[in-house]
Amino acid sequence: MPKKKLTHEEEFEILKLVLDKFLWLGFGIMAFGLFQMFMGSTLTGFYIMIPGAIVLLIFLAILIREYEIKR
User: Fold this and answer.
1) Number of domains composing the chain
2) pLDDT by residue (tens digit) across 20-63?
3) Residue 62's closest CA among 4, 13, 20?
């Protein structure tokens, strides 16, 4: 059974959904880390913010690779 080919618009819509989830996840982790910094230990909040920054860097790498953004 042959695979269904997606149109360029369908592929773009799916990519937008995936990128949106990466952006919200990274922002949520960073916001939680900032909240922890205000409520308690600064070091604990910083350690929570590091994975959020990593998720946002992955988001940036996907954007650059998919849209061929020139540096």
Assistant:
1) 1
2) 888 888 889 999 989 998 888 778 888 888 998 898 888 888 77
3) 20
Q: pTM for the full model?
A: 0.70
CB of 6 within 8 A of CB of 14?
Answer: yes
Q: Please check whether residue 11 lies inside any domain of the structure.
A: no
Residue 35 included in any domain: yes
Q: Where are the alpha helices (DSSP H) in the chain?
A: 8-39, 42-67
**Two structure tokens written together for 4:** 């269904």
| DSSP conformational letter for 71 | -
Residue 7 included in any domain: no
Structure tokens at 16: 């937008």
Task: Assess if residue 47 is contained within a domain.
Answer: yes
